[in-house]
């Protein structure tokens, strides 16, 4: 006779589909990531350097888009506020530095 546990109504369950959830008047993770990828794709090859000042969530989306990730990665990459993240472009985008202290 085996023991089977029934799911408890009090036990938290994983929330699926967070990537597509958008708060009222807000934007889903997938939408933000798609918008970041489009922006990266439209940047000209020159100038060689560009400074972007943005919220850590936007920088995280740019880094994930540069790596070809999906909306689920938004919860797995931490970008600290008030830090420096460096993306480089050769044939494709690369994440060179993430969450480095400001000089």
Q: Determine Rg (CA atoms, Å).
A: 18 Å
- Assess the beta-strand content as a share of residues: 15-25%
Global mean pLDDT: 82
Number of strands: 2
Keyphrases for this structure?
single chain, 103 residues, alpha+beta, two-stranded antiparallel ribbon, 2 helices, 2 strands, 25% helix, 16% strand
In short:
With 103 residues, this protein is of the alpha+beta class. It is built from two helices and two strands, in the order ααββ.
What features would you describe in this structure?
Helices cover 25% and strands 16% of the residues. With 103 residues, it is an alpha+beta fold. The protein has a two-stranded antiparallel sheet with strand order 1-2. Strand 1 and strand 2 (93-101) form a beta hairpin. It is globular, with a radius of gyration of 18 Å. 15% of the residues are buried. The model has no long low-confidence stretch (mean pLDDT 82).
């Amino acid at each position: 006779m085996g023991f089977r546990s029934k799911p408890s109504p009090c036990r938290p369950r994983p929330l699926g589909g967070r990537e597509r959830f958008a708060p009222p008047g807000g934007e889903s993770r997938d939408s933000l990531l798609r918008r970041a990828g489009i922006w990266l794709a439209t940047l000209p090859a020159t100038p060689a350097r560009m400074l972007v000042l943005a919220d850590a969530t936007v920088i995280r989306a740019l880094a994930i888009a540069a790596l070809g990730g999906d909306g689920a990665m938004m919860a797995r990459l931490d970008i600290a506020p008030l830090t420096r993240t460096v993306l480089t472009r050769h044939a494709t985008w690369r994440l060179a530095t993430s969450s480095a202290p400001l000089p």
